[in-house]
Amino acid sequence: MNVLNPNKPDLRYTSEVEKSTAHLYDKVRKVIPEVEWPVFAPLIHRINQLKAQKNAVILGHNYMTPEIFHCVADITGDSLALARSASKTEADIIVMAGVHFMAETSKIMNPSKKVLIPDMGAGCTLAEAITAADVRKLKAQYPGVPVVTYVNTSADVKAESDICCTSANAAQIVEGLGVPRVIMLPDEYLALNTAKLVKAEIITWKGRCVVHEQFSPADIRGMRESNPGVVVLAHPECSPEVVAECDYTGSTAGMIDYVAKHRPPKVVLVTECSMSDNVAADFPELDFVKPCNLCPFMKKIELQNILHSLEAETTEVHIDPAIAAKARVSVERMITGWKYGT
Ligand code: 13P
Ligand code: SF4
Fold first, then answer.
1. Rounded Cα distance, 329 and 335, in Å
2. Coil, helix or strand for 294?
3. 23-81 per-position pLDDT tens digit
4. Which atom number of ligand 2 is nearest to the Cα of residue 127?
5. pLDDT single digits (tens) 306-327
6. Whose CA is nearest to atom 8 of ligand 2?
7. 127-209, CATH topology level
8. Probe ligand 2: pick from 239, 272, 300, 301, max atoms within 8 Å of CB?
9. Distance, CA 141 to ligand 2 centroid (Å)?
10. Which CATH superfamily groups domain 212-289?
């Protein structure tokens, strides 16, 4: 006998669930096999009901898997877009389908909201590469040199910085400061790639992204050999040697915009591999070569823990208000523009 617990939501694939999620399956059918849909659909249906009941919004990074990205996220994008949306949302609850520094940025930008992350273990090797004490030491070593900090950092580190940047605006932020020398942290590769685009000298730090540091120039040459004519797009967290082998470098949103604008018949996104699935769902006519490097932190976010997060309103992100206020200055300067010393 099948006895349903009245306190537990029914997560069966009923005809009601099938009907209410059919339009969502249409979006992802190229990348999610039909046999998997009955597992995802009841979770998606329940999450979307709960969002409406609780006035919650889900922010989904471009690296989420397609059933999250296309079926439950209300706002999707790169780190910059998510930070902007977090500052504007009128929802009572923000659920970050992304990693911890992104949830912290949402809280920094909109402190009165309840910000939830479905798994506190969703970290980032770049955010772990530097502490606030490291930044204080650098500032003492290079007095008067502004600190440009990648958003992939903790609130403590942002609070010690002059201004933030993302992979979408790093060169523009450095140029905008109008100074001959900057400290850019913690991603060494982003800093070296940015140094090629700006006049200022850049002092770097030794942080690396565990996903992007794995790509080598030989990998890119191999992809071109096996896929003649392929267009290669890379994230600037890749090494400068990898970037030199590619046709375009940009943030995750920059790569998506490139695909939308140029429609290359065969393309490879040299970045975390869920993004290719998400873009392939939007451009089914294009052929995506998929190098499968997964971010183990992004992959901690799943439909099951998003549902639990919304149900139990956990795990909430808290930041010391004094730290958050200082960090907000750095993020806001990035969004509104800032010249050093003003
Ligand atoms: P984007 O800002 O380009 O989305 O990058 C975030 C990130 O974590 C890349 O690894
Ligand atoms: Fe951090 Fe790299 Fe994962 Fe992005 S892909 S969250 S930079 S570890």
1. 10
2. coil
3. 999 999 999 999 999 999 999 999 999 999 999 999 999 999 999 999 999 999 999 99
4. 1
5. 999 999 999 999 999 999 999 9
6. 124
7. Rossmann fold (3.40.50)
8. 272
9. 28
10. NadA-like (3.40.50.10800)
